[in-house]
């Protein structure tokens, strides 16, 4: 790998590491159910913008790290992240031209699918999670999506311009 390729991947890796850190930061009990899925939002953005570089394999590895970090069923987040990244890559050309409202609605649907997969896996394993634990991240993730988009787009533009 050339050093230029490594420099272009470094901001993506750092943004994913930052998203992982945001997922494990302790929060009060009343707010923990409303924590946005930072890793899912970050992977949706990078899969939409760089689908050949950050794809299902990357999502699997990041999902396994998230499973270990959160102490959940091993492979739960990995499977769900792989599925949403696959959907994002499949429709990335459409998503890139959507206006903000339509893109936010699409992200809402993708996050709802992500939470449904987690709900299904937890149900099979017999883990009981309240409904707000599934719907809270979907709603807050959709609300913070425009800000995530702006921040990650700014990072991508700075890297492309070499600043």
Structural features, described:
The chain has 163 residues and is mainly α. The chain has one domain (12-24, 32-161). Helices cover 79% and strands 0% of the residues. It has helices at 3-24, 29-32, 38-49, 56-70, 76-90, 92-95, 100-125, 132-161. Helix 1 runs antiparallel to helix 3 and helix 3 (38-49) runs parallel beside helix 5 (76-90). The relative contact order is 0.14. The model has no long low-confidence stretch (mean pLDDT 92).
Summary of the model, kept short:
The chain is an all-alpha fold and 163 residues long. The protein is built from 8 helices and no strands. Helix 3 packs parallel to helix 5.
Our Rg estimate from Cα atoms comes to: 16 Å
Percent strand: under 5%
Question: Which shape, going by the Cα principal axes?
Answer: globular
**Helix content, binned percent:** over 70%
Number of helices: 8
Order of SSEs: HHHHHHHH
Q: Tell me the domain tally.
A: 1
Main sheet characteristics: none
Mean pLDDT: 92
Give the total of beta strands: 0
Record the SSE blueprint.
Blueprint: H1 3-24, H2 29-32, H3 38-49, H4 56-70, H5 76-90, H6 92-95, H7 100-125, H8 132-161
Keywords:
single chain, 163 residues, mainly alpha, 8 helices, globular
